[in-house]
Design brief:
Elements lengths: L4 H22 L13 H24 L5 E2 L2 E2 L1 H16 L4 E4 L5 E4 L2 H30 L5 H15 L5 H15 L6 H16 L1 H11 L18
Antiparallel strand pairs: 1-2, 3-4
Helix pairs in contact: 1-2, 1-3, 2-3, 2-4, 4-7, 5-6, 5-7, 5-8, 6-7, 7-8
Length: about 230
């Protein structure tokens, strides 16, 4: 057996597990998928997945080579796939769940580490993206009136996206209805909350286009023509 096969296979197994971890994070945050990768805790999550994949391959080759054998020899392509995906499954394994008095389910097993780390990532990403959401909401509120445009904007956004799950549609509709009933909020406060809710569903680019069609900014006034008495 060539000396480089096992190190290369270990790297590939780690890479496979790490890529799956990246995909998991990217699909977790809808409004700005790749912004999740800007926080250090996200890369810690990816590295833990990658490390588990590499270790799994070494353990497979050392202790259970028959799982990846073909014709009496280890098939390292099969070993990489089994190790990379098997490590991901092992990290998410839970012996059973305990429900606390507060109603929170706590996993007992390796899944506990993953869940806690994802919680850290969620908080870091929320703090990072909150700054951008505030800026976007401020810009979109310039000519947007909740009382006049809220249902039109919700309908337009849901029409633009063809694959919005029914529960997400109901959540946004309930948000708009609930905000409309809040007489203690000013129109701009209602509009800001609706825009924040839609950002998480449709993303910044789609929401900007939708608001531009529903509540376009007024055209700039044309400059007044020079008077006849003005100096040339």
């Amino acid at each position: 057996m060539e000396f480089w096969i096992i190190p290369l296979s270990t790297v590939l197994a780690a890479l496979l597990a790490g890529v799956v971890g990246v995909i998991e994070l990217v699909t977790r945050y809808k409004d700005a998928p790749f912004r999740a990768l800007q926080v250090p805790s996200a890369w810690a999550y990816v590295l833990i997945n990658a490390f588990a994949g590499g270790v799994a391959l070494l353990m497979l080759v050392r202790y259970a080579p028959g799982l990846a054998s073909s014709g009496g020899k280890i098939d390292f392509v099969r070993a990489v796939i089994i190790s990379g995906l098997g490590a991901l499954a092992a990290l998410r394994f839970s012996v059973f769940k305990l429900r606390t008095d507060g109603g929170e389910d706590i996993s007992l097993g390796p899944a506990l580490v993953i869940e806690r780390l994802l919680g850290v990532v969620d908080r870091d990403v929320d703090r990072t993206m909150a700054k951008r959401r505030v800026v976007v909401a401020r810009e979109l509120l310039i000519n947007f009136s909740f009382a006049e445009h809220n249902m039109a904007l919700v309908t337009h956004c849901l029409t633009l996206l063809q694959n919005v799950p029914a529960d997400e549609q109901q959540r946004i509709a309930a948000l708009a209805t609930g905000l409309a009933s809040r007489k203690d909020l000013k129109d701009k406060d209602q509009a800001r909350a609706l825009i924040m809710g839609l950002l998480g569903l449709v993303g910044e680019d789609v929401l900007r286009m939708a608001v531009a069609e529903i509540a376009p900014l007024p055209a700039p006034l044309a400059p007044a023509p020079p008077s006849a008495n003005s100096p040339s």
